[in-house]
Amino acid sequence: MITAYHRPKTLDEALTLLTHPNTLPLGGGTLLASHKPTLFDSAQGRSDPVEVVDLQSLGLDSMKTSGNNLEMGATVTLQQLLVSEDCPDVLKSALKLEAPLNIRNSATVAGTLVSCDGRSTFATALLALDAKIIVVSKQKAEEAINIGNFLPLREQIRGKLITKIIIPLNVKLAFEYVSRTPADKPIVCAAVVQWNSGRTRLTLGGYGMSPMLAMDGTESEGLETAARNAFHEATDEWASAEYRMDVAATLAKRCLERL
Ligand SMILES: Cc1cc2nc3c(=O)[nH]c(=O)nc-3n(C[C@H](O)[C@H](O)[C@H](O)COP(=O)(O)OP(=O)(O)OC[C@H]3O[C@@H](n4cnc5c(N)ncnc54)[C@H](O)[C@@H]3O)c2cc1C
Description:
Layout: E1 2-6, H1 11-17, E2 23-26, H2 39-43, E3 50-54, E4 63-66, E5 69-73, H3 78-82, H4 89-98, H5 101-104, H6 109-115, H7 121-128, E6 132-136, E7 143-146, H8 147-150, E8 161-168, E9 172-178, E10 188-194, E11 200-205, E12 212-217, H9 223-230, H10 241-258
Parallel strand pairs: 1-3, 2-3
Antiparallel strand pairs: 4-5, 5-8, 6-7, 6-8, 9-10, 10-11, 11-12
Protein backbone atom coordinates (compact mmCIF):
# COMPACT_ATOMS: atom_id res chain seq x y z
CA MET A 1 0.00 0.00 0.00
CA ILE A 2 1.26 3.48 -0.91
CA THR A 3 1.16 5.78 2.14
CA ALA A 4 2.89 8.88 0.72
CA TYR A 5 3.67 10.26 -2.73
CA HIS A 6 6.62 12.49 -3.62
CA ARG A 7 7.39 14.06 -6.99
CA PRO A 8 10.93 15.50 -6.83
CA LYS A 9 12.16 17.87 -9.54
CA THR A 10 15.84 17.00 -9.28
CA LEU A 11 17.83 13.79 -9.15
CA ASP A 12 19.50 14.91 -5.93
CA GLU A 13 16.11 15.48 -4.26
CA ALA A 14 14.98 12.03 -5.43
CA LEU A 15 18.12 10.34 -4.08
CA THR A 16 17.67 12.06 -0.71
CA LEU A 17 14.07 10.83 -0.50
CA LEU A 18 15.20 7.31 -1.40
CA THR A 19 17.45 7.20 1.69
CA HIS A 20 14.26 7.17 3.81
CA PRO A 21 13.09 3.73 5.01
CA ASN A 22 10.39 1.92 2.97
CA THR A 23 10.65 4.44 0.16
CA LEU A 24 10.71 3.21 -3.45
CA PRO A 25 11.10 4.76 -6.89
CA LEU A 26 7.85 4.90 -8.85
CA GLY A 27 8.26 4.24 -12.57
CA GLY A 28 5.07 3.57 -14.50
CA GLY A 29 3.38 2.43 -11.29
CA THR A 30 1.72 -0.51 -13.06
CA LEU A 31 3.00 -2.80 -10.37
CA LEU A 32 3.64 -0.51 -7.39
CA ALA A 33 0.17 1.02 -7.64
CA SER A 34 -1.50 -2.37 -8.05
CA HIS A 35 -2.05 -4.66 -5.12
CA LYS A 36 -0.66 -7.66 -6.90
CA PRO A 37 2.91 -8.59 -5.97
CA THR A 38 5.03 -10.27 -8.65
CA LEU A 39 6.60 -13.67 -8.17
CA PHE A 40 9.79 -11.72 -7.42
CA ASP A 41 8.07 -9.51 -4.80
CA SER A 42 6.42 -12.47 -3.09
CA ALA A 43 9.74 -14.28 -2.81
CA GLN A 44 11.18 -11.18 -1.12
CA GLY A 45 8.19 -11.00 1.26
CA ARG A 46 7.34 -7.55 -0.07
CA SER A 47 3.91 -6.35 0.99
CA ASP A 48 4.80 -3.53 3.46
CA PRO A 49 3.34 -0.02 3.25
CA VAL A 50 5.65 2.13 1.12
CA GLU A 51 6.27 5.77 0.23
CA VAL A 52 6.91 6.37 -3.46
CA VAL A 53 9.19 8.77 -5.29
CA ASP A 54 7.66 9.48 -8.69
CA LEU A 55 10.41 9.79 -11.32
CA GLN A 56 8.34 11.52 -14.00
CA SER A 57 9.74 15.05 -13.46
CA LEU A 58 13.40 14.00 -13.60
CA GLY A 59 13.76 14.03 -17.39
CA LEU A 60 14.75 10.37 -17.57
CA ASP A 61 12.31 9.65 -20.40
CA SER A 62 14.46 10.13 -23.48
CA MET A 63 16.47 7.81 -25.73
CA LYS A 64 19.53 8.47 -27.83
CA THR A 65 22.10 6.57 -29.85
CA SER A 66 25.67 7.09 -28.74
CA GLY A 67 28.30 5.46 -30.94
CA ASN A 68 27.19 1.84 -31.37
CA ASN A 69 24.88 1.95 -28.35
CA LEU A 70 21.29 2.83 -27.60
CA GLU A 71 20.87 4.68 -24.29
CA MET A 72 17.40 4.55 -22.76
CA GLY A 73 16.39 6.73 -19.85
CA ALA A 74 14.96 4.76 -16.93
CA THR A 75 11.42 6.08 -17.40
CA VAL A 76 11.22 5.41 -21.13
CA THR A 77 8.06 3.33 -21.46
CA LEU A 78 8.01 -0.08 -23.11
CA GLN A 79 5.78 1.35 -25.84
CA GLN A 80 8.05 4.37 -26.40
CA LEU A 81 10.92 1.93 -26.98
CA LEU A 82 8.78 -0.32 -29.19
CA VAL A 83 7.84 2.52 -31.57
CA SER A 84 11.33 4.02 -31.66
CA GLU A 85 13.13 3.72 -34.99
CA ASP A 86 16.33 3.01 -33.05
CA CYS A 87 14.89 -0.11 -31.41
CA PRO A 88 16.05 -3.32 -33.15
CA ASP A 89 13.11 -5.15 -34.79
CA VAL A 90 13.77 -8.36 -32.87
CA LEU A 91 13.65 -6.47 -29.57
CA LYS A 92 10.29 -5.05 -30.71
CA SER A 93 8.93 -8.61 -31.05
CA ALA A 94 10.06 -9.41 -27.52
CA LEU A 95 8.52 -6.15 -26.20
CA LYS A 96 5.14 -6.99 -27.73
CA LEU A 97 5.04 -10.17 -25.65
CA GLU A 98 6.12 -8.44 -22.42
CA ALA A 99 2.77 -6.80 -21.72
CA PRO A 100 -0.39 -5.66 -23.52
CA LEU A 101 -0.55 -2.13 -25.02
CA ASN A 102 -2.20 -0.38 -22.06
CA ILE A 103 0.50 -1.62 -19.67
CA ARG A 104 3.28 -0.97 -22.22
CA ASN A 105 2.11 2.66 -22.37
CA SER A 106 2.82 3.12 -18.64
CA ALA A 107 5.41 0.51 -17.65
CA THR A 108 8.99 1.77 -17.79
CA VAL A 109 12.12 -0.05 -18.92
CA ALA A 110 13.71 0.23 -15.45
CA GLY A 111 10.56 -0.76 -13.53
CA THR A 112 10.20 -3.80 -15.75
CA LEU A 113 13.76 -5.00 -15.13
CA VAL A 114 13.42 -4.48 -11.37
CA SER A 115 10.14 -6.37 -11.08
CA CYS A 116 10.30 -8.98 -13.85
CA ASP A 117 10.44 -12.71 -13.36
CA GLY A 118 11.82 -15.45 -15.62
CA ARG A 119 8.95 -15.14 -18.09
CA SER A 120 9.99 -11.63 -19.10
CA THR A 121 10.76 -11.57 -22.81
CA PHE A 122 12.22 -8.04 -22.50
CA ALA A 123 14.65 -9.07 -19.76
CA THR A 124 15.60 -12.24 -21.69
CA ALA A 125 16.52 -10.11 -24.73
CA LEU A 126 18.37 -7.49 -22.65
CA LEU A 127 20.32 -10.22 -20.83
CA ALA A 128 21.42 -11.63 -24.21
CA LEU A 129 22.43 -8.11 -25.28
CA ASP A 130 24.55 -7.84 -22.10
CA ALA A 131 22.83 -4.54 -21.28
CA LYS A 132 24.49 -2.12 -18.86
CA ILE A 133 22.36 -0.76 -16.04
CA ILE A 134 23.43 2.68 -14.84
CA VAL A 135 22.64 3.15 -11.16
CA VAL A 136 23.12 6.14 -8.86
CA SER A 137 22.70 6.61 -5.12
CA LYS A 138 23.28 9.35 -2.58
CA GLN A 139 26.60 7.70 -1.69
CA LYS A 140 27.86 6.78 -5.14
CA ALA A 141 27.76 9.08 -8.17
CA GLU A 142 27.24 6.54 -10.96
CA GLU A 143 28.03 2.88 -11.49
CA ALA A 144 27.48 0.64 -14.51
CA ILE A 145 26.29 -2.86 -13.64
CA ASN A 146 26.12 -5.68 -16.18
CA ILE A 147 22.56 -6.96 -16.37
CA GLY A 148 23.83 -10.47 -15.51
CA ASN A 149 25.03 -9.15 -12.15
CA PHE A 150 22.04 -6.86 -11.68
CA LEU A 151 19.19 -9.37 -12.04
CA PRO A 152 20.15 -11.69 -9.15
CA LEU A 153 20.89 -8.72 -6.84
CA ARG A 154 17.82 -6.62 -7.56
CA GLU A 155 16.79 -6.61 -3.88
CA GLN A 156 19.98 -4.72 -3.07
CA ILE A 157 18.97 -1.86 -5.34
CA ARG A 158 16.89 -0.36 -2.51
CA GLY A 159 17.95 3.26 -1.92
CA LYS A 160 19.44 3.38 -5.40
CA LEU A 161 18.01 4.59 -8.66
CA ILE A 162 18.42 3.28 -12.19
CA THR A 163 18.90 6.28 -14.47
CA LYS A 164 19.78 4.63 -17.76
CA ILE A 165 19.96 1.31 -19.59
CA ILE A 166 22.44 0.85 -22.45
CA ILE A 167 22.33 -1.81 -25.18
CA PRO A 168 24.67 -2.39 -28.13
CA LEU A 169 23.28 -1.86 -31.64
CA ASN A 170 26.20 -3.30 -33.65
CA VAL A 171 25.21 -6.92 -32.94
CA LYS A 172 22.91 -9.54 -34.46
CA LEU A 173 19.94 -10.50 -32.26
CA ALA A 174 17.48 -13.37 -32.66
CA PHE A 175 14.54 -14.26 -30.42
CA GLU A 176 12.23 -17.30 -30.43
CA TYR A 177 9.53 -18.47 -28.04
CA VAL A 178 6.90 -21.10 -27.31
CA SER A 179 3.76 -20.26 -25.36
CA ARG A 180 0.19 -21.52 -24.90
CA THR A 181 -1.17 -18.84 -27.26
CA PRO A 182 0.76 -16.47 -29.57
CA ALA A 183 0.18 -13.48 -27.23
CA ASP A 184 0.81 -15.30 -23.95
CA LYS A 185 4.00 -15.07 -21.89
CA PRO A 186 6.40 -17.85 -22.94
CA ILE A 187 6.86 -21.26 -21.39
CA VAL A 188 10.29 -21.16 -23.01
CA CYS A 189 11.98 -18.33 -24.88
CA ALA A 190 15.50 -17.97 -26.18
CA ALA A 191 17.53 -14.97 -27.29
CA VAL A 192 20.86 -15.20 -29.07
CA VAL A 193 23.18 -12.26 -29.68
CA GLN A 194 26.31 -12.41 -31.81
CA TRP A 195 29.04 -9.78 -31.93
CA ASN A 196 31.29 -9.19 -34.99
CA SER A 197 34.09 -10.90 -33.06
CA GLY A 198 32.07 -14.14 -33.00
CA ARG A 199 31.18 -13.78 -29.31
CA THR A 200 27.80 -15.48 -28.88
CA ARG A 201 25.47 -15.13 -25.92
CA LEU A 202 22.41 -17.32 -25.34
CA THR A 203 19.77 -16.52 -22.74
CA LEU A 204 16.66 -18.46 -21.80
CA GLY A 205 13.40 -17.27 -20.28
CA GLY A 206 10.04 -18.75 -19.38
CA TYR A 207 10.97 -20.17 -16.01
CA GLY A 208 11.84 -19.10 -12.47
CA MET A 209 12.67 -15.76 -10.87
CA SER A 210 14.77 -14.40 -13.69
CA PRO A 211 15.88 -15.19 -17.24
CA MET A 212 19.16 -17.10 -17.25
CA LEU A 213 22.40 -16.89 -19.16
CA ALA A 214 22.98 -20.29 -20.78
CA MET A 215 26.14 -19.48 -22.72
CA ASP A 216 28.58 -16.64 -23.35
CA GLY A 217 31.23 -18.01 -25.72
CA THR A 218 33.76 -16.85 -28.25
CA GLU A 219 31.76 -18.66 -30.96
CA SER A 220 28.39 -20.39 -31.40
CA GLU A 221 29.65 -23.96 -30.96
CA GLY A 222 27.78 -25.86 -28.22
CA LEU A 223 24.74 -23.56 -28.19
CA GLU A 224 22.13 -26.34 -28.25
CA THR A 225 23.88 -28.33 -25.54
CA ALA A 226 24.14 -25.21 -23.39
CA ALA A 227 20.41 -24.55 -23.86
CA ARG A 228 19.56 -28.09 -22.84
CA ASN A 229 21.85 -28.05 -19.79
CA ALA A 230 20.58 -24.71 -18.48
CA PHE A 231 17.02 -26.04 -18.07
CA HIS A 232 17.83 -29.42 -16.50
CA GLU A 233 15.90 -28.49 -13.32
CA ALA A 234 13.31 -26.21 -14.91
CA THR A 235 10.13 -27.96 -13.82
CA ASP A 236 7.10 -25.96 -12.65
CA GLU A 237 3.31 -26.02 -13.03
CA TRP A 238 3.64 -24.94 -16.69
CA ALA A 239 6.05 -27.59 -18.02
CA SER A 240 8.54 -30.30 -17.10
CA ALA A 241 12.30 -29.81 -17.25
CA GLU A 242 12.52 -32.50 -19.97
CA TYR A 243 10.08 -30.55 -22.16
CA ARG A 244 11.86 -27.25 -21.55
CA MET A 245 15.27 -28.81 -22.30
CA ASP A 246 14.05 -30.06 -25.70
CA VAL A 247 12.30 -26.81 -26.58
CA ALA A 248 15.22 -24.64 -25.44
CA ALA A 249 17.63 -26.60 -27.66
CA THR A 250 15.28 -26.26 -30.65
CA LEU A 251 14.75 -22.52 -30.08
CA ALA A 252 18.50 -21.93 -29.67
CA LYS A 253 19.09 -23.70 -33.01
CA ARG A 254 16.37 -21.62 -34.69
CA CYS A 255 17.86 -18.40 -33.29
CA LEU A 256 21.25 -19.34 -34.68
CA GLU A 257 19.75 -20.02 -38.11
CA ARG A 258 18.06 -16.60 -38.04
CA LEU A 259 21.20 -14.62 -37.24
C1 LIG B 1 -2.47 -5.63 -12.20
C2 LIG B 1 -1.06 -5.94 -12.69
C3 LIG B 1 -0.41 -7.06 -12.25
C4 LIG B 1 0.88 -7.37 -12.69
N1 LIG B 1 1.48 -8.50 -12.23
C5 LIG B 1 2.72 -8.82 -12.68
C6 LIG B 1 3.35 -10.01 -12.23
O1 LIG B 1 2.79 -10.75 -11.43
N2 LIG B 1 4.59 -10.32 -12.70
C7 LIG B 1 5.24 -9.47 -13.56
O2 LIG B 1 6.38 -9.76 -13.94
N3 LIG B 1 4.67 -8.35 -13.99
C8 LIG B 1 3.43 -8.02 -13.58
N4 LIG B 1 2.83 -6.89 -14.02
C9 LIG B 1 3.56 -6.12 -14.98
C10 LIG B 1 4.25 -4.97 -14.37
O3 LIG B 1 3.39 -3.98 -14.75
C11 LIG B 1 5.62 -4.88 -14.98
O4 LIG B 1 6.56 -5.53 -14.20
C12 LIG B 1 5.98 -3.45 -15.30
O5 LIG B 1 6.76 -3.48 -16.45
C13 LIG B 1 6.60 -2.66 -14.18
O6 LIG B 1 7.07 -1.40 -14.68
P1 LIG B 1 6.65 -0.01 -14.01
O7 LIG B 1 7.48 1.04 -14.65
O8 LIG B 1 5.17 0.18 -14.04
O9 LIG B 1 7.18 -0.24 -12.53
P2 LIG B 1 6.64 0.28 -11.09
O10 LIG B 1 5.33 -0.35 -10.81
O11 LIG B 1 6.66 1.78 -11.13
O12 LIG B 1 7.80 -0.25 -10.23
C14 LIG B 1 8.11 -1.64 -10.16
C15 LIG B 1 9.36 -1.81 -9.28
O13 LIG B 1 10.49 -1.22 -9.93
C16 LIG B 1 11.09 -0.25 -9.08
N5 LIG B 1 11.58 0.83 -9.95
C17 LIG B 1 10.89 1.48 -10.91
N6 LIG B 1 11.69 2.35 -11.53
C18 LIG B 1 12.92 2.26 -10.96
C19 LIG B 1 14.17 2.90 -11.18
N7 LIG B 1 14.36 3.83 -12.12
N8 LIG B 1 15.23 2.56 -10.39
C20 LIG B 1 15.09 1.61 -9.43
N9 LIG B 1 13.93 0.96 -9.19
C21 LIG B 1 12.86 1.28 -9.95
C22 LIG B 1 9.97 0.20 -8.17
O14 LIG B 1 10.47 0.78 -6.97
C23 LIG B 1 9.24 -1.12 -7.92
O15 LIG B 1 9.91 -1.89 -6.96
C24 LIG B 1 1.55 -6.53 -13.59
C25 LIG B 1 0.88 -5.37 -14.01
C26 LIG B 1 -0.40 -5.07 -13.57
C27 LIG B 1 -1.09 -3.81 -14.04
